[in-house]
Amino acid sequence: MTVIGLGPMGQAMVRTFLDHGHPTTVWNRSAGRADDVVARGAVRAPTVADALAANELVVLSLTDYQAMYDILGTAERSLGGRVIVNLSSDTPERSRTAARWLAERGARLVVGGVMVPAELVGTEQAYVFYSGPRADFATHEPVLRLVGRPDYLGEDHGLAQLFYQAQLDIFLTVLSAYLHATALVGSAGVDAARFLPYAKENVDTLSYFLDEAARAIGEGKYPGDEATVRMMGATADHILETSRDAGIDLDLPAAVKAHYDRAIAAGHGTDGWPSLFEVITRRE
Ligand code: NDP
């Protein structure tokens, strides 16, 4: 196959393909970034057109979809018949637009989102969301599987990036919450190491709450038998005030409190906390 884009992620993928005996052609804007994988046996394509001509399967690992246009736009005539597997991060809408752009040039797009850091590519922990034409995905699935366990979501090109961004939505928000909480205890001189076991236990129990919320969202019913919006909202206010007293960032707790305020204003005060979903699904 061909791999275009040799940042840490692209290089990790090429190493994996080579380790499994798959001849791999590579191209990168900054040519020197190909040196390591070429030393391991990859073939350096002198131009983008050569990289496209070498194989039907072309994997992209780039910063975003604009980089795809910048690169493939220089060799549009070589795109006919290619299956472009774009594993770069971007929005679902940009994935759909790219599928149309490639189709107009005779190529087909399979969209992917790699769900592990580069150093875990090719390991058992790695998995990758895919969406786009099922037949093209199925044809190339055996080699794509080397990157990580493939999880095919459907024909809609936007789905892979939608799941990718949704997973990172959880990941980034929880990481910020952990840093915020650590700053909160730090305001009283508590160091991160002392707080860590408490934070870990907290994160480990979160999946219980997700089960409860998913059930309520699915049923569209939010019984307020246990944690109501009003009770949790008061806590959200206490976190905001504690942060203010500690002199640390207020943006994160203010955003959380805003969800509770809006839910109360919408009449969910005595409903269960998962009813926040009703205000989160509508931007105001
Ligand atoms: P880098 O930013 O290090 O590499 C990006 C690649 O894109 C480089 O080859 C770079 O070329 C190229 N590029 C960027 N802009 C342009 C442009 N305008 N024209 C031509 N080439 C361009 O990213 P990574 O390798 O870390 O990641 C690649 C993708 O994988 C990203 O979308 C990232 O979100 C995703 N990903 C990365 C993970 C990781 O751990 N690194 C984890 C999961 C997903 P040049 O070398 O010339 O700058």
Distance between the termini: 47 Å
**Superfamily (CATH H level) name of the largest domain:** NAD(P)-binding Rossmann-like Domain
Quick one: overall form? elongated
* Strand line-up in the sheet with most strands: 3-2-1-4-5-6-7-8
Oligomer: single chain
Enumerate the spans where pLDDT stays under 50 for 5 or more consecutive residues: none
Would you give the CATH topology of the largest domain?
Rossmann fold
Q: Over the alpha carbons, how many angstroms does the gyration radius reach? A: 23 Å
Short précis:
This protein is an alpha/beta fold and 284 residues long. The chain has helices at 8-19, 35-39, 48-54, 65-72, 92-103, 134-144, 159-186, 192-204, 206-219, 229-246, 251-265, 276-280, and strands spanning 2-4, 25-27, 43-44, 57-60, 83-86, 108-114, 127-131, 149-152. The protein starts with a strand and ends with a helix.
Give the key terms.
single chain; alpha/beta; N-(1-d-carboxylethyl)-l-norvaline Dehydrogenase, domain 2; eight-stranded mixed sheet; 12 helices; 52% helix
Give a description of the structure:
InterPro entries: 6-PGluconate_DH-like_C_sf, 6PGD_dom2, 6PGDH_NADP-bd, HIBADH-related, HIBADH-related_NP60_sf, NAD(P)-bd_dom_sf, RedAm-like_C. By secondary structure, this protein is α/β, with parallel strands linked by helices. The chain has two domains: 2-155, 3-Layer(aba) Sandwich (Rossmann fold); 187-280, N-(1-d-carboxylethyl)-l-norvaline Dehydrogenase, domain 2, CATH 1.10.1040.10. The chain is built from twelve helices and eight strands. The protein has helices spanning 8-19, 35-39, 48-54, 65-72, 92-103, 134-144, 159-186, 192-204, 206-219, 229-246, 251-265, 276-280, and strands spanning 2-4, 25-27, 43-44, 57-60, 83-86, 108-114, 127-131, 149-152. An eight-stranded mixed beta sheet has the order 3-2-1-4-5-6-7-8, sandwiched between helices. α6 (134-144) links the parallel β7 and β8 (149-152). The site of NADPH dihydro-nicotinamide-adenine-dinucleotide phosphate has 21 residues, from α1 and α4.
